[in-house]
Specification:
mainly alpha, Growth Hormone, Chain: A, cell membrane, MFS, L-fucose:H+ symporter permease
Length: 434
């Protein structure tokens, strides 16, 4: 790697720093949402499958809004996409207040959907925005650096969820709640749902401040001009090129299973810890916090390591290790299995941005719609936790981690595919030997 190649263009340093706050913001939202699966199952006395609809609403919105976000980016600019996403996300977060007053699970799902819709637009815009802020040769490393601030938000989100939500849950079991009078149960649920509402409304205020800061900056990456000069959108031709691109197509599949695995692991960490160690939700939340701290530290470490080791090789190796850790957890549902679960987050640290950056390589003018496809792949976070929740209801939390184990194997296969694809390309370009 050329040490003199700048990681970010000089005039993009301030916008790059500001965009990292957006990466942190959706980390806060995503990881405040993970504990809600367990929270709502207790408040409304639901099964794991029913409460997993939280993730279905959240990641389903990512799928639905990614393509409209691509049209916004193509027709206007990445900056417009970022502002639109921040606006919708703030609206959805503010909606947690009327949802808490209604005390209806469906209203919370609607608020989550709008929040995630905004984050989908934001993420579809911000990721390729960062890629356009510097030289193409270190785009994946630059995206990993920006994404390194996502786990900062993740840790804040887990802390807020544990400190402001989990600690406010009434210790009454489902059986004890069934014996309460209607007035007693409503009083308990009101306190718990207000605890859910507070951090989301606070986050909405922060999102508004970020929106104002982004709006005030004049931002136009030089590399965005390549695709921004044309106002016509030839969607059918673009879609045809993307579908014909095997490297990109496999990248979307890998991202689907990567996000599914990540969501499964973090969504059911509390459940696994509670079952393995016979502890309560608060103690389970502590281990989720440990996981996110490791995720944060590993993200910075992997960004540094990519200066020396090919990103795809790291992706393949850590995916296999994550799958092995899942199998160990299944066979050892005890304190050792819990620490294996924590270790998986270290493996997850580089997966999303690496798949994203590798899959977008060489797409040129199709990058904006290619980015949308990779964000739509986040649908894996909506579907696969439902499968894991169903297994938990029937066979317990330990065996359910076979779902992320299989997902990690798919991700690892993509890492190997990219390595072989690169070697094949080098072979074709190499001069013939006598």
């Amino acid at each position: 790697m050329n040490k003199k190649t700048p990681l970010v263009f000089r005039d993009m340093i301030l916008p790059f720093i500001l965009l990292t706050t957006c990466f942190a913001a959706w980390g806060v939202a995503a990881n405040m949402t993970d504990p809600l699966v367990k929270v709502f199952s207790k408040i409304f006395t639901m099964s794991s499958l029913q409460s997993a609809l939280v993730q279905f609403a959240y990641y389903g919105a990512y799928f639905c809004l990614a393509l409209p976000a691509a049209f916004i980016n193509r027709r206007f600019s990445y900056k417009t996409g970022v502002l639109t996403g921040l606006g919708f996300a703030a609206l959805g977060a503010f909606m947690f207040y009327p949802a808490s007053q209604s005390m209806a699970y469906g209203y919370f799902l609607a608020a989550l959907f709008i929040l995630a819709a905004g984050l989908s637009i934001l993420e579809t815009s911000a990721n390729p925005f960062v890629i356009a802020m510097g030289p193409v040769e270190n785009a994946t490393r630059r995206l990993n650096l920006a994404q390194a601030f996502n786990p900062v938000g993740c840790n804040i989100g887990v802390f807020l969820g544990a400190a402001l939500i989990l600690t406010q849950l009434n210790p009454a079991t489902a059986q004890e709640r069934a014996l309460m009078s209607a007035a007693e149960l409503q009083a308990v649920q009101t306190t718990e749902l207000n605890a859910v509402m507070l951090p989301y409304v606070g986050m909405a205020c922060v999102l508004v401040l970020i929106w104002i800061a982004v709006a005030m900056l004049r931002i136009r990456p030089a590399r965005e001009k390549v695709v921004a000069h044309s106002r016509e959108v030839h969607f059918r031709a673009t879609l045809g090129r993307l579908l014909a691109n095997r490297h990109y197509r496999f990248g979307v599949i890998a991202q689907f299973f990567n996000v599914g695995a990540q969501t499964c692991v973090w969504t059911f960490t509390i459940q696994y810890v509670m079952d393995a160690l016979s502890v309560d939700e608060v103690r389970g939340g502590d281990f989720l916090q440990y996981s996110l701290i490791l995720f944060l530290l590993a993200r910075f470490a992997m960004t540094w390591l990519m200066g020396y080791v090919r990103a795809s090789a790291l992706l393949a190796g850590l995916s296999v290790l994550a799958a092995a850790l899942c199998l160990f957890m299944i066979m050892s549902p005890n304190i050792y299995g819990v620490w294996a679960l924590v270790a998986i987050s270290g493996c997850l640290s580089l997966m999303f941005p690496t798949i994203y950056g590798v899959a977008l390589e060489g797409l040129g003018e199709d990058t904006k719609f290619g980015a949308a496809g990779l964000v739509m792949a986040i649908l894996g976070g909506a579907i696969l936790p439902l499968a894991q929740g169903a297994i938990i209801d029937s066979y317990g939390s330990a065996l359910s981690f076979i779902v992320p184990a299989l997902c990690f194997l798919v991700v690892g296969r993509y890492g190997l595919f990219d390595i072989k694809n690169a070697e094949r390309s080098i072979g074709l370009l190499a001069p013939a030997t006598r």
